[in-house]
Amino acid sequence: MFHAQILTLFPEFFTSPLACSIPKRAIEAGLAQVDCLQIRDFSTDKHHNVDDKPYGGGPGMLMKAEPVVGSIREARKRDPQTHVVMLTPSGVPFNQAKALEYVEKRHITLLCGRYEGFDERICDEVDEQLSLGDYVLSGGEPAALSVLDALIRLLPGVLGSPESALLDSFTEEGMLDWPHYTRPEIFEGKSVPKVLLSGDHAKIDAWRKEQAAIRSKSRHLS
Ligand code: ADE
After folding, report:
1. Residue 137 CB–ligand 1 contact under 6 Å
2. What domains sit in the chain, N to C, each tagged with a CATH number?
3. pTM above 0.90, yes or no
4. Helix, strand, coil share (%) of the chain residues, nearest 5
5. Residues labelled catalytic
6. Alpha carbons 150 and 212: distance in angstroms, whole number
7. Given this model, what pLDDT does residue 4 score?
8. With a 6 A CB cut-off, is 114 part of the ligand 1 pocket?
9. Which portions of the chain are predicted below pLDDT 70?
């Protein structure tokens, strides 16, 4: 069983995305378990504060060390094998290779921040810092959700056909996927490439590989 824990101030953010389609099926089939921990529950001051002003001045607020570290330690207590990942724009970039690496670990904790960032001392408590890309989201939650979705669909038994994940874009030597077509054969005057109707599987394979290479090159991936 794949076990994910999410440390967040907004557990409700994850309710609907995990209750539909592939994540829902994976959870219902017992292939994945996802638990959210509310960071605010680990604040010990009387107002349950989770943020404070930065020392040295500057705009915005920071996530306080005490509640966040408390939530990380609880996640490690609940699942001693868990690999704790902080979502932050200054982390290493997420990609399909990382997704495969995390899925192998089977136990993952995703730490979501809000405000301007985390107190630096929180970083000592995590195993890794991860970024979804070079842009700034309003919080780590959309990043954590994307990572979680990318992992769940890779779990054995989750996708309808076991080859689907293997044929994904990026899986083969970092290449993009080839173009796909389904019925009708002609849509608004645009035809399906003839080779796909030929029944010649060697030719179809060669065409697909060539198209994937063209696409990957035009998008600077190879
Ligand atoms: N939090 C805010 N922006 C982020 C990003 N690009 N990746 C991961 N976490 C984030």
Report:
1. yes
2. 2-152 (3.40.1280.10), 169-218 (1.10.1270.20)
3. yes
4. 40, 20, 40
5. 89, 116, 153, 168
6. 21
7. 98
8. no
9. 162-163, 166-167, 172-173, 221-222
